Amino acid sequence: MEPVLHPTGKQLRALAHPLRSRLLGTLRLDGPATATELAARLGTNSGATSYHLRQLADVGLVEDAPERSTGRDRAWRSSHGSTSWSSTDFDDDPDARAADDWLLRHHANTMGRWVDDWLESRDQWPSEWRGAADQSDYHLTATPEVLAALMAELHAVVRRYVDASDPSAPTAQPVTVLLHAFPSPERRP
């Protein structure tokens, strides 16, 4: 599996669909699954799930998972660990720009739900987890080059922790880290 995919316009357009985006995310988080298993998890039907998995496979976003497939049931897995792109990669492709816009807004809404879910359920977590969790905001003045360097450094730090993670540790749990950086809305030019 490739660690990071830098998508083409065609791949980005294929991913800009609610079910396809959820399918890829589920395969990344939960590992290989059949269309039937994915349909049950996502509350859809296996026919639609199968169709959209094939659409993702046609552009190289998912692939067969032979270790989970049987003669009757085809299992799928993500063909990469994460997807990363810059909106400016698609300045000359209006359809890919529209897909980029949809995906960024869809992901922002999803991340907002994740934060809301954490805030709703945090009292059910042990104090060690509540104390380790963080929600911070920083404000600084930077050039585009400085912001790009900051984000590259933050991504490198997170990747080091991803690579060193030990899911078999007794207290290990899946953790979500969200990084956002953009010109402050209240200071628009």
In a nutshell, what does this entry contain?
The chain is mostly helical and 189 residues long. It folds into two domains: 125 residues, Orthogonal Bundle (Arc Repressor Mutant, subunit A), CATH 1.10.10.10; 49 residues, no CATH class.
Would you mind describing this structure in some detail?
- With 189 residues, the protein is mostly helical.
- It folds into two domains: 125 residues, Arc Repressor Mutant, subunit A (Orthogonal Bundle), CATH 1.10.10.10; 49 residues, no CATH class.
- Helices cover 51% and strands 9% of the residues.
- The strands form two sheets. It has a three-stranded antiparallel beta sheet with strand order 2-4-3. A two-stranded parallel sheet has the order 1-5.
- Helix 1 packs across helix 5 and helix 2 crosses helix 4.
- The chain is globular, with a radius of gyration of 19 Å.
- The chain starts with a strand and ends in a 25-residue tail after the last helix.
- The mean pLDDT is 93.
Mean pLDDT across the residues is 93
Given the helix and strand composition, which structural class is it?
mainly alpha
Low-confidence stretches: none
Radius of gyration: 19 Å
Largest sheet: 3 strands, antiparallel
Level-1 CATH class name of the largest domain: Mainly Alpha
CATH level-4 homologous superfamily of the largest domain: Winged helix-like DNA-binding domain superfamily/Winged helix DNA-binding domain
How do the SSEs run, as a string of H and E? EHHEHHEEEHHH
The CATH topology of the largest domain is: Arc Repressor Mutant, subunit A
Question: What is the terminal separation in angstroms?
Answer: 42 Å
Q: Tell me how many strands there are.
A: 5
Helical content stands at 40-55%
For the biggest β-sheet, the strand order reads: 2-4-3
Classify the beta-strand content into a percent band. Answer: 5-15%
Outline, from the CA principal axes?
A: globular
Helix tally equals 7
Task: Return the domain count.
Answer: 2
Named at the architecture level, the CATH assignment of the largest domain is: Orthogonal Bundle
